[in-house]
Amino acid sequence: MMWSSFFFGLLIACTGNPASSSCSLKMSPSRVVVKFEGSFSANCTSLSNDTEGMGWESPYGGVDLTQNVTSLDFKIDSVPEWELGPMCYTNSRDGGQCTEVLPVTVYKMPDSVSLRQNSSTGKEGEQFAIQCDLVNVAPARNLSVLWHKGNKILNPETFNDSRPSPVSKSSVLTLTAHRDDDGAEIWCEAKLNLWPGEQGPTMMRSKSHRVTVLYPPTLTKPENETLEMTVGENITLNCNAKGNPPPSYRWEFPKFSKEFHNKEEVIEPILTRTFELPGVYTCTAYSDQGTVTKYFNISEAPRSRTTFGVMVGVGVAVGVLLLIAGVYFVTPNGTFSFNKGGYQPGTPSGPV
Predict the structure, then answer these.
(1) What does the alpha-carbon distance between residue 12 and residue 97 come to, in Å, rounded to a whole number?
(2) How far apart are CA 91 and CA 7, in angstroms?
(3) Distance from the first to the final alpha carbon of the chain
(4) Who contacts 55 (Cβ-Cβ below 8 Å, separation ≥6)?
């Protein structure tokens, strides 16, 4: 039987017959990764010229000692165990023996990968946790959990667990809520690091979870503004704010007419209208997360001089000049002359 030949070989090794210095075995493949209940095959080749026979020792798929061969195949149609250590051995003509174990890793992808979170929302600045549950995966020592947030991959988590059979594992991601993460998708991914490069089965991922972050209103243009108004022209007041939940708005106008009152509710974040009187116009963006206020100081623009005003100004100026000129051209008795030398006081200028 195959196990008896194996122990017989060990007996030879223990009774003083050393392994030959020319002993050399080559495995193809050098290691095996196989799914539980899957199949695989391997070949053992002796590179020694002194080989008398070969065999495979294994509780499943073993091959008895075969004489006069230097290459021998091993095959299992359905892997029934989580640990396998098939061993190829050769017997040499001088009574020595060579052995080599074929490394076999038996794996199983998780039954499920899912996210669990106590709350679907978080306030900005507060920490919240999301848990990734992986059910029945093996081997855990080769398992890593990758966390994704949007297009970013966060630090993976690995597990120090040497059990070869399936186990259930959980990974917890703790984040500090930030407004930039509002609406971002988060998911986890299970990966078995057993193959080089992109070989092996694809990774298994959970459904994505959309993050909701609550934060107070923030003005897109936070600076207070000073504006000049011209009668009949529109002015735009921008009080647009971003927040979650979306903010409501309250405008306060100077009390200058019956149609506007202090603390009047106006829901628009941007007002474009004709403002007839100067003053301070106040906008407040508010929600249950906070309040922010912006002030618009509106002053009256200097009035431009119209044509009529220019004409009136010219007339007034001429009158002043004539008044000044009258000191020299109007005589004490009230007669008027443009030529001072052609007029004599008390002398009529012509027939009466």
Answers:
(1) 8
(2) 12
(3) 170
(4) 2, 5, 6, 62, 63, 64, 65, 66, 72, 88, 89
pLDDT single digits (tens) 105-114: 999 999 999 9
What phi and psi values does residue 12 have, to the nearest 5 degrees?
Answer: -65, -45
- Name the DSSP letter for residue 328: H
Domain boundaries, the chain: 2-106, 112-210, 217-300
CATH of domain 217-300: 2.60.40.10
pLDDT tens digits, one per residue of 122-172 = 899 999 889 999 999 999 999 999 999 988 998 889 999 999 999 999 999
* Class of the domain covering 112-210: mainly beta
pTM for this one? Answer: 0.66
Radius of gyration over every alpha carbon of the chain, rounded to an integer in angstroms: 49
Q: CB under 8 Å, gap of 24 or more: what pairs does 1-6 form? A: 1/64, 2/55, 2/56, 2/57, 2/62, 2/63, 2/64, 2/65, 3/57, 3/62, 5/55, 5/57, 5/64, 5/65, 6/55, 6/57, 6/87, 6/89
Q: Which residues touch 113 (CB under 8 Å, ≥6 apart)?
A: 132, 133, 134, 135, 188, 189, 190, 204, 205, 206
The CA distance from 47 to 110, in Å, is: 41
| CA proximity to 86, closest of 101, 71, 66, 76 | 101
Residues 6+ apart with CB under 8 A from 271: 236, 237, 239, 251
Tell me how far the alpha carbon of residue 269 is from its chain's centroid.
28
Q: H/E element holding 84?
A: none
> 221 — phi, psi (to 5°)?
-125, 90
d(CA 152, CA 211) in angstroms, rounded, equals: 14
Q: Which of 263, 256, 252 is nearest to 294 (CA)?
A: 252
Q: Are strands 290-300 and 279-287 parallel, antiparallel or unpaired?
A: antiparallel
Q: From CA 250, how far away is CA 285, in angstroms rounded?
A: 7
Q: Do domains 2-106 and 217-300 have the same CATH topology?
A: yes
Element (H, E) at 17: none
User: What is the enclosing helix (H) or strand (E) of 289?
Assistant: none
